[in-house]
TrEMBL record:
Keywords: Amino-acid biosynthesis, Arginine biosynthesis, Cytoplasm, NADP, Oxidoreductase. This is N-acetyl-gamma-glutamyl-phosphate reductase. It catalyses: N-acetyl-L-glutamate 5-semialdehyde + phosphate + NADP(+) = N-acetyl-L-glutamyl 5-phosphate + NADPH + H(+). InterPro entries: AGPR, AGPR_AS, AGPR_dimerisation_dom, AGPR_type-1, NAD(P)-bd_dom_sf, Semialdehyde_DH_NAD-bd. Catalyzes the NADPH-dependent reduction of N-acetyl-5-glutamyl phosphate to yield N-acetyl-L-glutamate 5-semialdehyde. Transmembrane segments: none annotated. One of its GO terms (biological process) is L-arginine biosynthetic process. It is an enzyme of class 1 (oxidoreductase). It comes from Marinomonas posidonica (strain CECT 7376 / NCIMB 14433 / IVIA-Po-181). The keyword NAD does not apply. Belongs to the NAGSA dehydrogenase family. Type 1 subfamily. CDD domains: AGPR_1_C, AGPR_1_N. It comes from the Bacteria.
Length: 343
């Protein structure tokens, strides 16, 4: 039985880690931290976990966390970079659900996150945790940077086309929508029911923090410069991401359906749907799946890819556990086979 720690257990991703790990047969959560809720029972904060955990929140302690085999960081950016190095040096494996180790160019990271990166050496050591792309590197990694939610849905939709070299990489468009939980659990006027309900708006049009992460991932699979227009939107639902991607084909002879099916044939958590399907976010609610459909409208030179995930599962905590399984040499889908909730 592997011992697991969670730093930052009171946000949505921390709570989702607890929910999913409660049914994992090979791990035990032995430490969960929160400065604001220190001393309180986990089940008092999250009654849905009553009967599954008898843990209390504690103040983060390297000595306590160093007793774990693996530690998840479900913290805002800027936190993990200060605490992870000592854990790594003491032999603990780490999966960071935040953004501290995702972008390899730390100058670019500082531009988007508004602070200097204090541990650039560990950024260089980190493996980007998109299993469908970096599975082999994740197996031997000690530090994994868990991808963001928008980057997960968007990269999984575009990478097969870029790998095959059949689209123009300089002119890509990703039009993405997210449920309100993507904004986190902290108090925010824009996330209030009266503000978000019965409304639909774009944000981050001039530039969003996930843009450099997405471009970095796409650039890794093509030799040509990637140009991406990425526009996120907030929609009045709790969970889910729908990314609609557009690209121009430079080879119209390829069977796109067969290409996607072959690319993801061995990937348990990517479901390439039958031709003509329209994936819905609700089909992935609570589950670690990405569902994808590909179209070539009117048989022209444009390709449209539809990609849906649960932003808190495949877009965050579920994918983090998927990475944990790979790092601990467990079956990749262990503890993650739950199906989407309907309705």
């Amino acid at each position: 039985m592997y011992k697991i720690g969670i730093v930052g257990g009171t946000g949505y991703t921390g709570a989702e880690l607890l929910r999913l790990l409660a049914n994992h047969p090979q791990v035990e959560v032995v430490a969960i931290t929160s400065r604001s809720e220190e001393g309180k029972l986990v089940s008092d904060i999250y009654p849905s976990l009553r009967g599954h955990y008898n843990l209390r929140f504690t103040t983060p302690s390297v000595d306590e966390l160093a007793q774990c085999d693996l530690v998840f960081f479900a913290t805002p950016h800027g936190v993990a970079m200060d605490q992870v190095p000592e854990l790594i040096d003491r032999g603990v494996k780490v999966v960071d659900l935040g953004a501290d180790f995702r972008i390899k160019d730390t100058v670019e990271w500082a531009k988007w996150y508004g602070m200097d990166h204090r541990t650039p050496d560990y950024v260089a050591k980190a493996v980007y945790g998109l299993p469908e792309i970096n599975r082999d590197a994740i197996k031997t990694a000690q530090l994994v940077a868990n991808p963001g939610c928008y980057p997960t849905a968007t990269q999984l939709g575009l990478i097969p086309l870029l790998e095959a070299g059949i689209i123009d990489p300089a002119h890509l468009i990703a039009d993405a929508k997210s449920g309100v939980s993507g904004a986190g659990r902290g108090a925010n006027v824009g996330s209030l029911l009266c503000e978000a309900s019965e409304s639909f708006r774009a944000y981050g049009v001039a530039g969003h923090r996930h843009l450099p992460e997405i471009k970095q991932g796409l650039q890794a699979v093509t030799d040509s410069p990637v140009g991406l227009t990425f526009v996120p939107h907030l929609v009045p639902m709790i969970r889910g991401i729908h990314s609609t991607m557009y690209a121009t084909l430079i080879d119209t002879t390829v069977d796109l359906q067969s290409l996607f099916e072959a690319r993801y044939k061995g990937d348990f958590f990517v479901d390439v749907m039958p031709a003509g399907s329209l994936p819905e976010t609700r089909s992935t609610k609570g589950a670690n799946f990405c569902r994808i459909a590909v179209y070539r409208p009117q048989g022209g030179d444009k390709v449209v890819v539809l990609s849906v995930i649960d932003n808190l599962v495949k877009g965050a905590s579920g994918q983090a556990i998927q990475n944990m399984n790979i790092m601990l040499d467990l079956p990749e889908n262990m503890g993650l086979t739950a199906l989407g909730m309907m309705p």
